[in-house]
Amino acid sequence: MPAFKNAGVPVAEIAEFVALRLDGDQTLTTRYQLLKDHEANLKKQLQQPRGNPELPQV
Question: Residue 12 phi/psi, 5° resolution?
């Protein structure tokens, strides 16, 4: 699941997604919602000011 890690998904959420996937198609709606929630979080992060990339964040 390298795409998840590159997208900043916490390991616990990746494990949850994998466990749901192993449970089969009946978890499809839950897995889809996890992805939609993460997408919303990424969009919020992109809207936040990033500051000066040359300065370390404190």
Answer: -60, -40
What's the Cα-to-Cα distance from 38 to each of 5, 27, 53, rounded to whole Å? Answer: 12, 17, 24
Task: Count CA within 13 A, CB hemisphere, residue 36.
Answer: 6
The residue written with tokens 């370390």 in the block is 56
Cα→Cα distances 36→12, 33, 49, Å: 17, 5, 22
pTM assigned to the model: 0.68
pLDDT tens digits along 3-46:
666 677 888 989 999 999 999 999 999 999 999 998 998 898 88
